[in-house]
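Side project, low priority. Logging it here so it doesn't get lost.
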Amino acid sequence: MQLDLEVLREVRDYETPKGLRHVAVFLICTIPIFLAPFWLSFCDKAVGGSVHLESDGDEGGPHPHGCFAGYFMAAIFVIITFSLLRVQEALEVSI
């Protein structure tokens, strides 16, 4: 019985609450939707402004990497955030 109480205490002290984990997963899935206009701005600059976004006064010409840079940044963002979430879960299991 004492061993079970120690396991419960360890979980209470070191494990991330399940609600917080669900919020983190929700944010990881929704933040790319909100960042999509920023990533789309790379395509806007690459094609000379045919993608209609509100201009913020940046008239610097086409972005050197175009749409590829936007797609690359989106993919890297998702890979890094999910990797960090998996590392957190793995650390909780190993404790």
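Brief comment: The chain has three helices and no strands.
Revisit when time allows.
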